[in-house]
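hey team, just a heads up i'm posting the complex here instead of the shared drive bc the drive is being weird again. everything in one block, sequence lines first with there labels, then the predicted structure for the whole assembly after. its two chains so it's a bit long, scroll down
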Amino acid sequence: MSAVTADVSDDRGGRAASGPAGGGFAGAFASEWTKLWTLRTPYVCLLVGLVVTSVFTFYYGSIARINDKPVQPVGNASVSSVVLTQFALVILAMTTVTSEYATSSVRTSLLWVPVRARVQLAKALLSALVGFVTAMVWAVLGIALAWVPFRGHAEFELPKVAYQAVAMGVYAALICVLTVGVSFALRTAAGAMAMVFFLVTALPGMLVGLGGPVLLAVNDYLPQTAGGYFMLGDGKAPFPDAVSLLILLVWAVAAQVAGLLVLRRRDA
Amino acid sequence: MITLRELTKRYGETVAVDGLTLDVKGGLVTGFLGPNGAGKSTTMRMILGLDHPSGGEALIGGRPYSSMRHPVREVGALLDAKALHPARSARSHLVAQARSNGIPVSRVDEVLEMVGLAKVARRSAGAFSLGMHQRLGVAGALLGDPQVLVFDEPVNGLDPDGVRWVRELVRSLAAEGRTVFLSSHLMSEMQLTADRLVIIGRGKLLADTPMADLLAGSALSSVRVRTPDMADLHTLTRHLLKDGDVRVETPAAGELVVRGRSSEQVGDLAHGLGLRLHELRTVAASLEEVYMELTARSVEYGTGDPLPDGPRSGQTRGAEA
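-- predicted structure starts here --
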């Protein structure tokens, strides 16, 4: 106790160099990390995603064989499952923000880390990290599970598999970053979920359903569509994979900026 | 030290905090009083960087809260004890707080022990009673061993034991030279706890003064006189009432309560008249009475009756205190 007192009084005026360690962005991230894993929600999200990945990829392989589809990269099974499993990660990322608004504990968080951009960045980075690692694990799991039912209707090339697994991780990470931004902008779980679902899933469905060159072109620039091109990496996209990635990045950054504008301006 | 300079908060047309300028000094417990909606919580939130001032500034140790790299080590704050995730355990909550400011996790167990929550530390905070929430909030405020403490209604929901514990804790923190800024609605408790008082009404500063001065200077302070002789009592009353600014009441036979004169003045008068007195003492007004007197005029939808003639004024409640 007294050691801390000494630290505090010695720190007056002087900044990080002579002051106590910790705090700052590293502290904010460590705090967010602790908060995430001391609730049940993330474990449930990861488990649900794991189950959905397993079922989806197994069926994907089976159906490709039953319908006698042409040979495709085995990783396509995992990539296709992302349309569903991404929402496990969206909910995980969203609740890191919206559960704090629902319980008023966001005020407590801002007392611990009063620099608002730092809180948001810590949550975004944490969600991105969890999304990246998790989606890669799901990708590998999906490939393993789909391989058997494919029975020769898929090919296994290590560079392609590695690309698709990493691309899935990157896509999931950026969707998480987008979700955190939207959640800070809208603050409620219902609002954030509706917005992310509309943007990521409903809108592409509508545009494709309505059809026409303009709507389909617009669709190419939506996060899930561009993300799909990026993860499949089969050269059938209207633009290079790097551009697809860039489109995803722009969406994620735009959502973060929107979230930060609200977070900084409003009273907590 | 907490420094407010022309601190102002507007919500559209409404001015919640209106040009507040004051210093909250170290080594003292400074009580923060005001009716509901007077702007107390808004002021505290602005001090802690949660609300943005519309004008002026709030500094702690000369710096805004949001510029501190380790705010938890410099300022301990308890605003809303329930502002935490109910599913997280008390200990995990504090561990997350400790990590945010580079405080060793061993300190978490120390403060949990200190506030008496060590046994329930791994239970989810949502199952806590209001009193346990307050204790957890206090634990969070003490976690970084800060020099400045800001408590909003810390005794709210505590049992008498807990109230006393907070009082002694707060007094000992101030005795160590720390700055303690504390709001409460419990006047009797505040009278026992605070050295200095800041009273606001409708966002404006009504008083910023040592507790003793506030009570002694109040028009509600009175002098109690007791005499065995009813004739003497009448004589004294008659002489006292010669001046218009003195008010006299007779709460019981042979007793007189005088307002507007000091005990020295009453004593000298009785001596001059050759009257026999059995009792002559000053009865300081209670904080509650002084507070009501001060804020009566500032309560937006109050009865508008400045207290002195109210039902309480005849009673010398301060006599027991």
